């Protein structure tokens, strides 16, 4: 993600306007239950029986007039839906030691700390101590095409004009609903693991920074991105397959910064394909998560710049999503190795801006992390969404596009090569980015998940995996994956060498050049305590900023229309006939999507007529083949009307027959302020 410089002013105004005084809670420590047997020893050794449950829920926020999260552009606001966003949950428990973990992969740019705080709070209200910070792992797919404004930290709400309570609630309640569903479906089963190399689906977007890593280290790897996909197949004892999770490191940026339709991007599309293949829609649905890993410097746009090989954003998304889906299907069929051992986990909050790094984790000298700050090159953006200036501006250079300006910027000895454009950690009343951050280690039998609230570059991820793998090897752990963008968010982590170049990822490494070393040190501690059955102190409690949130986002005043038309009436009708591969389209008089988000519902239906005259739904707004597009029209100069266009790209395997496009929504009355449902249908048309 990136943010333009000018927008800091906007946020500054925002802060000044509120005059908000953040309560600064003391860093209190809470008692922590001592952990019992390690997952892989004692009663859990060789245990193959797990309890499994999967769940899926809708987390699609306002589909119009909310700034989107990822590219950091005020003008990129939602205007409709390409795919609905989902939270996909997996509860996995081990009878051998009575421990459980809830893993969630959500179609979000990031999982902000506030989301984790309130999800755990609601789970606690329902289940007591069964689900806590320690065993709930929320990971984002990193789609850049979802609505934003759901962080409690100013920096991440700059381009969305503050906090969006509607979006935040849609996300938190959906994530909770998916976990509750998984919890209620818990039944005996097995986990099988499979992995392989997926080539041609990703590319390093900062190759020159990668080249600064030591030659002998680079020589250990065939590529400058991690091409490994690791897949878990979840099967109930009765043989029913209930889901899959895979981890593959790639940015969900096939959709560019010109897209304004909500979309799960390549990861969401792959999930949708997998779920459709396993009979999407039935009551006991199969749940397929395409989770992210150490994707910090990894782009899906394999042809350079923002190009992924398709004709447009939608084709790029389709290409990348299908590559990931096809490969996952292959690994799925091959998954035979059962995971053995129980479930275990360790979690700690770390004040990331004040870590003393021991010489053995740094360069032989004692080092420290720094107050959070972003470098000038963050404004340049990564090549997936270019911004202002160029990448790679360092204090030492000064001859780049920014010239004298970059060298006139302050840096600190701690931040070394980084020309500081904004010290987010020093902003008052509250810092603009968090510094008390969650680090979490989960083992599911032989598989370890390293959950980090960052975007790690390829080599940073490899080093962290090595640290954990070495510490856990005696317990039988054979596979370690990075669960990126988990539980909170605070920018990127580049290696010390990559940091020196100050490309986008280095400039976005908030806590300075030794951030990765600090992570390795803390994960070494988590891994050894898990190995040795020891507990870890919980660390400081992150601040809760829910009382400080301000929104400048417009609500819906009311919906206008011309006197002689009704909501749901057709403006431009469908054609009488189409062929497969064509796009059917109709435009309706509509209401604003903020009137009702239609969670677990839809704004559109594609329906086919049965021989008895009844209509069968064949697609909703969640289907990548459909689009729901909202547009504000001045129907006469004084009236602000909504036009809604429904499109359906008719699949090549669509059954011939008679179809229609339906739009459903809610409108808000200017007379009584009430919100009422409406619907409308296009003419019928034939598909040949
Ligand atoms: Zn990113």
Report on this structure.
This protein has 688 residues and is of the alpha+beta class. Helices cover 20% and strands 28% of the residues. It is built from twelve helices and 35 strands. The strands form eight sheets. Strands 1, 4, 5, 6, 8, 10, 11, 13 and 15 form a nine-stranded mixed β-sheet that branches. Strands 2, 3, 7, 12, 26, 28, 31 and 32 form an eight-stranded mixed β-sheet that branches. Strands 27, 29, 30, 33, 34 and 35 form a six-stranded mixed β-sheet that branches. A hairpin with a 4-residue loop joins strand 10 (228-236) and strand 11. The chain starts with 5 loop residues before the first helix and ends with a strand. 58% of the residues are buried. It binds zinc ion. Zinc ion is lined by residues 1, 142, 251, 455.
Mean pLDDT over all positions: 90
Multimeric organization: single chain
Low-pLDDT windows of residues: 1-37, 398-404
Bound molecules: zinc ion
Number of helix segments? 12
Question: What is the beta-strand fraction?
Answer: 25-35%
For the biggest sheet, the summary is: 9 strands, mixed
**Count the strands?**
35
> Terminal Cα separation, in Å?
44 Å
| Approximate helicity band | 10-25%
Shape: globular
Structural class: alpha+beta
**Radius of gyration from CA coordinates:** 25 Å
Question: Which features would summarize this protein structure in a list?
Answer:
binds zinc ion, eight-stranded mixed sheet, disordered N terminus, alpha+beta, 688 residues
């Amino acid at each position: 993600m990136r943010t333009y410089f000018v927008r800091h002013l906007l946020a500054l105004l925002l802060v000044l306007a509120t005059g908000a005084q953040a309560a600064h809670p003391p860093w209190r420590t809470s008692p922590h239950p001592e952990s019992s047997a390690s997952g892989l020893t004692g009663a859990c050794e060789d245990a193959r029986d797990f309890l499994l449950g999967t769940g899926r829920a809708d987390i699609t926020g306002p589909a119009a007039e909310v700034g989107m999260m990822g590219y950091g552009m005020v003008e990129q606001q939602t205007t409709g839906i390409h795919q609905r966003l989902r939270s996909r949950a997996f509860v996995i428990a081990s009878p051998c030691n009575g421990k459980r973990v809830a893993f969630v992969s959500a179609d979000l740019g990031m999982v902000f700390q506030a989301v984790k705080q309130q999800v755990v709070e609601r789970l606690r209200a329902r289940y007591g101590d069964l689900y806590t910070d320690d065993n709930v792992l929320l990971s984002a797919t990193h789609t850049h095409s979802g609505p934003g404004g759901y962080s409690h930290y100013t920096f991440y709400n700059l381009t969305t004009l503050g906090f969006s309570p509607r979006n935040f609630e849609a996300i938190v309640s959906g994530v909770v609903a998916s976990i509750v569903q998984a919890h209620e479906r818990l039944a005996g089963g097995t986990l099988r693991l499979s992995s392989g190399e997926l080539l041609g689906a990703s590319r390093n977007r900062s190759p020159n920074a990668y080249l600064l890593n030591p030659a002998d280290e680079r020589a250990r790897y065939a590529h400058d991105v991690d091409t490994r996909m690791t897949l878990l197949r979840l099967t109930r004892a009765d043989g029913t397959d209930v889901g899959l999770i895979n981890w593959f490191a790639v940015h969900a940026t096939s959709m560019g910064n010109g897209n304004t339709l909500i979309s799960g991007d390549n990861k969401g599309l792959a999930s949708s394909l997998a779920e459709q293949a396993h009979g999407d829609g039935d009551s006991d649905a199969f749940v397929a998560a395409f989770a992210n890993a150490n994707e910090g410097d990894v782009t899906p746009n394999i042809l350079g710049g923002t190009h992924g090989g398709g004709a447009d954003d939608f084709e790029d998304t389709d290409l990348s999503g299908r590559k990931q889906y096809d490969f996952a299907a292959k690994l799925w069929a091959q998954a035979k190795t059962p995971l053995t051992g129980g479930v275990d986990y360790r979690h700690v909050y770390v004040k990331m801006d004040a870590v003393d790094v021991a010489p053995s984790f740094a360069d032989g000298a004692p080092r420290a992390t720094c107050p959070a700050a972003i470098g000038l090159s963050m404004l340049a953006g990564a090549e997936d969404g270019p911004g202002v200036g160029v990448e790679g501006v360092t204090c030492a250079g000064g001859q780049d596009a920014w010239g004298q300006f970059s060298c006139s910027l302050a840096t600190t000895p701690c931040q070394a090569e980084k020309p500081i454009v904004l010290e987010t950690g020093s902003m008052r009343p509250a810092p603009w980015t968090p510094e008390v951050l969650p680090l979490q280690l989960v083992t599911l039998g032989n598989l370890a998940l390293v959950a980090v609230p960052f975007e790690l570059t390829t080599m940073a991820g490899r080093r962290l995996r090595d640290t954990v793998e070495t510490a856990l090897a005696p317990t039988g752990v054979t596979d370690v994956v990075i669960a990126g963008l988990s539980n909170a968010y605070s920018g990127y982590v580049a290696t010390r060498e990559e940091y020196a170049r100050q490309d986008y990822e280095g400039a976005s490494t908030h806590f300075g050049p030794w951030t990765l070393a600090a992570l390795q040190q803390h994960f070494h501690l988590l891994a050894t305590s898990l190995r040795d059955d020891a507990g870890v102190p919980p660390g400081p409690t992150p601040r809760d900023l829910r009382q400080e949130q301000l929104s400048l986002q417009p609500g819906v005043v009311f919906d206008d229309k011309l006197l002689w038309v009704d909501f749901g009436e057709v403006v431009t009708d469908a054609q009488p006939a189409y062929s497969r591969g064509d796009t059917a389209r109709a435009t309706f008089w509509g209401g604003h999507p903020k009137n009702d988000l239609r969670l677990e519902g839809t704004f559109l239906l594609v329906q086919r007529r049965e021989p008895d005259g009844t209509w069968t739904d064949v697609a909703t707004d969640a289907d990548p083949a459909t689009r729901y597009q909202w547009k504000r029209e001045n129907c006469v100069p004084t009236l602000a009307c909504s036009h809604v266009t429904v499109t359906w790209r008719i699949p090549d395997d669509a059954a011939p027959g008679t179809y229609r496009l339906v739009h459903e929504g809610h409108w808000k009355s200017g007379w009584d302020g009430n919100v009422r449902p409406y619907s409308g249908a296009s003419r019928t048309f034939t598909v040949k």
